[in-house]
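Morning run. Coffee first, then this:
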Amino acid sequence: MEEVLKILMWHAGWLNLLGQVALTASVDSCLANHIAAMWVIYNGHVFQQEELLLCYGGEASLKRLTFKALSIHAQRTRPITQSSFISFLG
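And here it is:
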């Protein structure tokens, strides 16, 4: 029984990882398509595949820079402890 649980947990973990990667890629792809549609409305130029790929890559790079900046900011700020949170509330 324990061996079956290990196999099920292993499959659940890998499916979770695949789902996270697929979800992230689909959100980035939808944003690139949205930007392309807004560009068509703005000036009538339809994106070619290469331009859409550049938009996708640029958006992903911008997201990475934003997460990096947020992590640097989080390292510089004082962590919230239970006592400081309670003193904040009351």
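The CA atoms of residues 47 and 86 lie 53 Å apart. Good start to the day.
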